[in-house]
């Protein structure tokens, strides 16, 4: 979670600098981000199809490889509230 907060903070700082310089952000429009999500999900269709014959293998692949590739490395929840 710390990495996400640092990333957000860095983005805010860059946004402030862009605002002070009077330039627009080179960030892609939302439609481009939706297309990128489609690419990430579409990449997984062929490997899923190959593993479809073996259901336990498919379940493992989706839970590990696909999730990691599409969502990135998610933070651990090692410290739980009591």
TrEMBL record:
Highest taxon, organism lineage: Bacteria
Transmembrane segments: 5-21, 27-46
Alphabetized NCBIfam families for the sequence: XapX (TIGR03510)
Annotated protein name in UniProt: DUF1427 family protein
Species in which this protein is naturally found: Sphingobium terrigena
Pfam family, one: DUF1427
Cell division found in the keyword field: no
Keywords, ordered alphabetically: Membrane, Transmembrane, Transmembrane helix
């Amino acid at each position: 979670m710390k990495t996400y907060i640092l990333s957000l903070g860095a983005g805010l700082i860059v946004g402030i600098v862009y605002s002070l310089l009077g330039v627009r952000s080179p960030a892609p429009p939302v439609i481009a981000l939706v297309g990128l999500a489609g690419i990430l999900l579409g990449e997984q269709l062929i490997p899923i199809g190959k593993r479809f014959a073996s259901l336990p293998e498919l379940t493992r692949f989706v839970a590990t490889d696909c999730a990691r590739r599409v969502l990135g490395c998610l933070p651990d929840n090692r410290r739980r509230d009591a």
